[in-house]
Amino acid sequence: MIRLNTPISESDIRALKVGDEVLLSGRVVLSRDMGHKFMVEEKPEWLRPILDEAVIYHCGPVVRKEADGTWSFVSSGPTTSIREEPYQADVLETYRVRGVIGKGGMGAKTSGGLQQVGACYFHATGGAGALIAERIKRVVDVKMLEEFGSPEAFWIVEVEDFPLVVTMDSYGGSLHEEVLAASLANAKALTA
């Protein structure tokens, strides 16, 4: 098990390979469709220091506002990442993001972006949102809550020992492509 803390250097990311298991600690920024479109089209300067050498988590959380005004996460499972394919490579480059967390993998454009900037795609376990929420120790801030709504806002959180698997690395390796190729070969053999 490899332990990583944000901010993450390019050299630490370049040391990772497909299949590596990671426990991530530190600050993570949640962002989905509206946030990615906003980052690419508007290029807000206030996000640069937040995302520099950080990790983006594709997640629409279920949150609860406590009596003291703080937020807590009820559920925070990953959302399907391929929806961010039109934007992700540009976001990686513009903001020097070192990692993306989600489920299902991403496409060729994102793979190229991962290789260019030195970043990885991390797979989080789908269907375990309540369990994963236990790894989110604190909500640091939330941006664009009123504009985007809770699932689409930029939630800036601190995580501790967040369990991940590298499924796309900074060298073009993709577990998703490997599984697809093996599945197609098996299907072809079964139908021959």
Summarize the structure.
With 192 residues, the protein is an alpha/beta fold.
Would you give an account of this structure?
This protein is 34% helix and 30% strand. The chain is α/β, with parallel strands linked by helices and 192 residues long. The strands form two sheets. The protein has a five-stranded mixed β-barrel. Strand 6 (99-102), helix 5 and strand 7 form a beta-alpha-beta unit. The relative contact order is 0.21.
Distance between the termini: 41 Å
Overall mean pLDDT stands at 94
Largest sheet: 5 strands, mixed, barrel
- The low-confidence runs, each spanning 5 or more residues with pLDDT under 50, are none
What's the domain count?
A: 1
